[in-house]
TrEMBL record:
<keyword id="KW-0732">Signal</keyword>
<feature type="domain" description="Secretion system C-terminal sorting">
    <location>
        <begin position="50"/>
        <end position="121"/>
    </location>
</feature>
<dbReference type="InterPro" id="IPR026444">
    <property type="entry name" value="Secre_tail"/>
</dbReference>
<dbReference type="Pfam" id="PF18962">
    <property type="entry name" value="Por_Secre_tail"/>
</dbReference>
<protein>
    <recommendedName>
        <fullName>Secretion system C-terminal sorting domain-containing protein</fullName>
    </recommendedName>
</protein>
Amino acid sequence: MTNVPVYDLDLRTADNTVLATTHGRGLFTGKFTADTASITAPLDENQLKVFPTQATSEIFISTKLNYNNADVTIFNLNGQQVYQQKKSLSSSRQRIDVSGLSTGLYLLKVHGNGIDQTVKFVKE
């Protein structure tokens, strides 16, 4: 069905069938057979906290759970790593000095021991 304009698409959810209607070429059907993807455990978006999100000299990170020797990495928007250190994270806040970073948007990634999360912050 190459180069045939489709004027109407319908999805029949009862059997996951897609119906494509054309002018002069008829009705075409196709089925979705893949299983539905799902998340078994909800992601706790408050698992990693970074504050303030607009920093001048330092940021603080904390988590709801304890993570020993987690990799804390900061990337600029060019993908360059500008900071990397192993830290033990917990609900008590950990300080990171960002005074040496240029003004801009950064991504802070925490990885290891059951956590893999990225948070944005702005260096003013």
